[in-house]
Write a structure and sequence with these properties.
Layout: E1 6-8, E2 34-36, E3 56-60, E4 71-79, E5 86-92, E6 117-119, E7 130-133, E8 139-143, E9 148-152, E10 158-163, H1 201-212, H2 230-242
Antiparallel strand pairs: 1-2, 3-4, 4-5, 5-6, 7-8, 8-9, 9-10
Helix pairs in contact: 1-2
Length: 243
């Protein structure tokens, strides 16, 4: 963030290989595989070549999504207009060869020279922020300081937005889930012995009774050791006290 640059590294390196220039899937050890946004950091440009400033939420656009394989990010201090400046969401294409290696020319910075898509309409946050491409080509954007989430089309049209009300409210970053996301997820609440979707004293009493009767219910097995005992009671009691 404070270098106004993004980096790609090889997570396959071992701790022994990481301080070196060899090893890992790409054979470069702990060296950067790719960097972009501020080439003056490695003496391949000047301040006029810098594109990023205090950026957040760098991520690859997933396979099958419009722009798949490209990078998308939230650039916090994108321009100097406005009282504090303006933020922007940027999408850019990294230079990758047919074998998946990032390429760079001698005496030149890593490409590209600029981004291929941006959204710059009335968003600014000094901290955090997020941007995620959607399967239909829209982009979900989070303006942290304003607690504002918006979904925009490729042409910049806002098709959905939400602002969380309240004093000192922020939203660091939001993501969107499909309507069927939870269909195959077990929705049972661990510790909810009586099945009322609430953790309270009634569940503690029910768990105590199970322990005293030497009976087993997986909903009360808080530490997943296939046994109900005082440790499960203490864990559940702590959860209830915190709720």
């Amino acid at each position: 963030r404070y270098q106004s640059e993004i980096f790609v590294i090889d997570h396959s390196t071992t701790t022994e290989e990481a301080p070196s220039h060899s090893g890992g899937n790409y054979g470069k050890g702990g060296d950067f595989l790719y960097r972009w946004g501020n080439p003056q950091n490695y003496d391949r440009g000047t301040e006029s070549d810098r594109i990023l400033s205090d950026q957040h939420s760098i991520n690859w656009i997933p396979n099958g999504y419009p722009g798949e394989g490209n990078f998308i990010l939230f650039n916090n201090y994108h321009s100097g207009s406005g009282p504090w400046g303006e933020s922007a969401v940027l999408e850019f294409i990294p230079p990758v060869d047919s074998e998946g290696n990032y390429t760079i020319q001698d005496d030149e910075p890593y490409g590209p020279e600029t981004y291929i898509w941006s959204y710059e309409e009335n968003i600014f946050t000094a901290m955090q922020g997020g941007s995620f491409r959607q399967p239909n080509g829209n982009t979900l954007i989070t303006d942290c300081d304003s607690a504002h989430i918006l979904e925009v089309t490729e042409n910049g049209e806002i098709v959905w937005e939400y602002t969380e009300s309240g004093a000192n409210t922020v939203i660091a970053r939001a993501q969107k889930y499909a309507l069927d996301y939870f269909d195959n997820i077990d929705n049972n609440l661990l510790g909810d012995i009586n099945g009322d979707d609430i953790l309270n004293i009634l569940d503690i009493v029910a768990l105590v009774n199970l322990v005293l009767a030497a009976e087993y219910d997986p909903m009360g097995d808080m530490n997943d050791d296939e046994t109900l005992n005082v440790l499960d009671i203490v864990t559940l009691a702590n959860l209830v006290l915190r709720s």
